[in-house]
């Protein structure tokens, strides 16, 4: 196999990986990444389609894989596997049990596709990496996974929220906007509060009850960076 053929094969595999990891992939971004022409990417996409890969073309938007199609397991490099193991240690410091469970389930699947030698190295690294934790801080929660789903699907959330300043619990309907966390400490939800008619910070351990409603809200146009610059005094 010539160098040119090897280069194209590597590119086809990379395009498949990118299609699997993103909702939409444009020919322009792929062409720029591999420093080839857009016309070359068109030919690559056609080659993949002829090989039986169900690629959907969305005119003016890009390419995506048909729902339900799954590629064979990806082989991770040693550095990539090490990064996942290190990240696992950080996640285990987290105070939200729903995030820990979801990550552990995910990392277990990742470990399952590692080669035997890589599994041994990952196990060794897992035993030899640790992060210090403030044992005096017992703030916990179990809402993160549900809130993440509501945030990305634009669902209104109903919460019963405790305010220590007033020593009272109020029911709020909020539109989730963003999430912030100090490693090893409590999570905060930034949300538009319909009761206060403004953005508010909701600390997870003060949320007494939560319900993800079926009601949808219009996505917020402000970016997280815009919010942080405008409301920096809250942090």
UniProtKB/TrEMBL annotation:
Keyword Iron-sulfur (UniProt): no
Superkingdom of the source species: Bacteria
Family annotation (Pfam families): HTH_11, WYL
Ranges of residues in domain HTH deoR-type: 8-63
SUPFAM superfamilies hit by this protein: Winged helix' DNA-binding domain
Entry keyword set: Transcription, Transcription regulation
GO molecular function annotations of the record: DNA-binding transcription factor activity
Record-given protein name: WYL domain-containing protein
Native source organism of the sequence: Chitinophaga oryziterrae
């Amino acid at each position: 196999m010539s160098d040119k053929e090897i280069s194209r094969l590597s590119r086809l595999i990379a395009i498949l990986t990118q299609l699997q990891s993103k909702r939409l992939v444009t020919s322009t971004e792929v062409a720029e990444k591999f420093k080839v022409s857009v016309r070359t990417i068109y030919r690559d996409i056609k080659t993949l389609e002829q090989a039986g890969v169900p690629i959907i073309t969305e005119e003016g938007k890009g390419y995506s894989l048909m729902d339900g199609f799954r590629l064979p397991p990806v082989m991770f490099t040693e550095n990539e596997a090490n990064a996942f193991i290190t990240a696992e240690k950080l996640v285990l410091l987290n105070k939200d049990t729903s995030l820990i469970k979801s990550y552990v389930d995910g990392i277990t699947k990742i470990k399952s596709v590692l080669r035997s030698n890589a599994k041994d190295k990952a196990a060794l690294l897992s035993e030899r990496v640790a992060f210090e934790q403030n044992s005096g801080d017992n703030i916990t929660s179990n809402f993160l996974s549900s809130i993440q789903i509501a945030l990305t699907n634009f669902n209104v959330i109903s919460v019963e929220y405790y305010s220590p300043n007033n020593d009272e619990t109020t029911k709020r309907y909020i539109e989730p906007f963003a999430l912030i966390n100090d490693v090893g400490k409590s999570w905060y939800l930034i949300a538009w509060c319909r009761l206060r008619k403004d953005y508010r910070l909701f600390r997870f351990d003060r949320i007494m009850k939560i319900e993800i409603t079926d009601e949808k809200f219009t996505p917020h146009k402000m970016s997280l960076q815009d919010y942080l610059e405008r409301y920096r005094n809250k942090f």
